[in-house]
Write a structure and sequence with these properties.
The complex is a heterodimer of chains A (about 210) and B (about 325). Chain A is of the alpha/beta class and about 210 residues long. Chain A contains 9 helices and 5 strands, in the order ααααβαβαβαβαβα. In chain A, strands 2-1-3-4-5 form a 5-stranded parallel beta sheet, with helices on both faces. In chain A, helix 1 packs antiparallel against helix 2 (about 15-30), helix 1 runs parallel beside helix 3 (about 35-55) and helix 6 packs across helix 7 (about 155-165). The two termini of chain A are about 30 Å apart. In chain B, helix 6 (about 135-155) runs parallel beside helix 7 (about 180-200) and helix 11 packs across helix 12. Chain B starts with a helix and ends with a strand. The relative contact order of chain B is 0.14. The chains are: A alpha/beta (about 210), B alpha/beta (about 325). The interface between A and B is medium-sized, with 25 and 33 residues.
């Protein structure tokens, strides 16, 4: 087994100290930092995401793997060049106005970061104006809106309409998700994408940014 | 037969004639429905300053709110959310409902010591404890269990007031449970089984609620022996027919009317969903008709009333 496979495996098991140790070893052996990031750490999180989608792993296993990834990245960061660290895309994410639930949003954020995307977390109770302003300010590729309540999901339509009115519809995609959200609703409001789970959201975001 | 007796028959999965029982974990739309603020929405900033007489009026008004709601929608059970929530106030609101309605309704309140899905800020910390300090987490679970049992023991000194506990810790997302089946077996099931057993030994019924896709852990939940499982969340892909096939010989089933659809669907879609739930639920006994969560703030009252109208027409055991 190569050391990159070892890093990926340890990450999947959530073994943060081991991941950190293996990353240091890989650096010492002269492996390219970008390869360690892509083929070790991100590869491991990708496997976790795939397993999550088919109920082979559950949220705590995702969280503990993400913690291991962060430990690996902390070790790797001083060795990464600006080019190595260039994100695959930039996302602004938040829970819509009137809704204070953050579990789903945080999971999506974690999955996206695990796949090499940069995520700006706006928090909860975020208005359409705040979403769009943050997207412009951060030069984001995607706005991700989360809602748990049927009574707050209507704000997603406001985000779509505001983005369109600002002429950003060809530039900034909008992804939506949350317990009451469906593909039908996504189509109805003119959002660009909906996924049922956090790992699929990361897949879709990567596809949009590619 | 009283509504309470009908509800208990459903929990026991015994044969029933007439309307299948119905209730809601919470019916928040009281202001619109009966002109009264829901008790859990009331803020008594000067409660301790009130005279005993005024407190009594407040308890009576809250009791009326529960009773009028149950009467209007023919609920068989009332989920009481004591406010204030101290023990004496809890006893008093239960007494007030009993004084006004005797044993007409099944009365329940919260009583779940098990861990639920932690919120977004606590998820990582909770997960880390599961992995790195499992014994500490189990000690915390034990403490929570002890508090719930102690409360029930105090309550049992007042026989005839409370009929059961609703155990409302949420375990599941739409796509899957937060806890893996192995984690559920280690950190949840032992405590769930013990609290249910303790409640039962004191004569209390138990209704285990959780939203989301329960299927990967449904068998474990049933093995903890609650009298009923509530929500059967269609947004989480839970099929009432499948739950009935797998578990209706062991547990009563409650819910499954898609509460999200009630808000967002067309009238035709909602009507079809209500009729589907009734048909699937009433394929046997041991079923209580309800939404898959509650009549929540913001839900259009006319949609709930449409649901109840359909229940009155089609929710009848022949």
């Amino acid at each position: 087994m190569s050391i990159l496979e070892e890093i990926s495996g340890a990450l999947q098991q959530g073994r943060a100290p081991k991941v950190k140790e293996l990353v240091a070893q890989a650096i010492g052996e002269g492996l390219q930092p970008k390869a360690i990031l892509e083929d070790g750490l991100i590869a491991g999180m990708t496997v976790i995401g795939e397993k999550f989608k088919i109920n082979e792993v559950f949220v705590p296993e995702v969280l503990i793997a993400a913690r291991a990834m962060n430990a690996g990245i902390a070790e790797l960061k001083p060795h990464l060049s600006q080019d190595d660290m260039k994100a695959k895309g930039k996302i602004v994410i938040g829970t819509v106005k009137g809704d204070l639930h953050d579990i789903g949003k945080n999971l999506v954020k974690l999955m996206m970061e695990g796949r090499g995307l940069t995520v700006v977390d706006l928090g909860v109770d975020i208005s359409a104006e705040e979403f769009v302003e943050a997207a412009v300010e951060n030069e984001a590729d995607i706005i991700c809106c989360s809602a748990l309540l049927t009574t707050t999901m209507g704000e997603m339509q406001n985000v779509v309409e505001l983005r369109n009115s600002k002429g950003l519809d060809g530039k900034v995609k909008i992804m939506i998700g949350g317990a009451p959200i469906t593909q039908v609703y996504c189509d109805h409001i003119g959002a660009d994408g909906y996924t049922a789970d956090a790992a699929s959201a990361a897949d879709m975001a990567l596809a949009f940014c590619g | 037969m009283t509504n309470r007796e009908r509800f208990i028959k459903a929990l026991r999965r015994e044969p029933l004639t007439g309307l299948v029982p119905t209730f809601e974990l919470v019916f928040y739309l009281t202001m619109e429905a009966i002109g009264k603020v829901h008790p859990s929405q009331r803020i008594f900033s000067q409660w301790d300053q009130m005279s005993a007489k005024e407190k009594e009026v407040q308890f009576a008004d809250m009791a009326d709110t529960y009773i009028l709601t149950a009467e209007k929608y023919s609920h068989s059970a009332i989920f009481v959310h004591p406010n204030p929530s101290d023990f004496d106030s809890t006893i008093r609101i239960l007494e007030s409902i009993r004084e006004k309605t005797d044993d007409e309704y099944f009365l329940m309140m919260h009583g779940d010591p098990t861990f639920s899905i932690p919120d977004g800020h606590r998820m990582m910390e909770f997960t880390t404890r599961m992995y790195e300090k499992p014994d500490e987490l189990k000690k915390s679970a034990e403490n929570r269990l002890a508090i719930s049992i102690e409360f029930a023991e105090k309550m049992s000194a007042y026989p005839g007031l409370l009929d059961g506990f609703a155990l409302c810790s949420d375990y599941c997302f739409n796509v899957n449970p937060f806890f893996s089946p192995a984690m559920f077996e280690e950190f949840i099931a032992p405590y769930l089984a013990r609290v249910i057993d303790a409640y039962r030994s004191m004569g209390y019924y138990t209704i285990k609620h959780t939203d989301g896709n329960i299927m990967p852990i449904a068998g474990q939940m049933v093995d903890c022996k609650p009298d009923a499982i509530h929500s059967l969340d269609p947004q989480g892909g839970v099929s009432l027919t499948e739950m009935r096939r797998l578990y209706s010989d062991k547990v009563a089933l409650i819910g499954n009317v898609n509460c999200g659809l009630l808000q967002t669907g067309s009238e035709e879609e909602c009507r079809a969903d209500v009729l589907r739930s009734l048909k699937e639920g009433m394929a046997g006994y041991g079923y209580v008709f309800s939404t898959s969560n509650c009549a929540y703030t913001g839900l259009a009252l006319e949609r709930y009333e449409m649901m109840i109208d359909l229940w009155r027409q089609f929710g009848v055991y022949t």
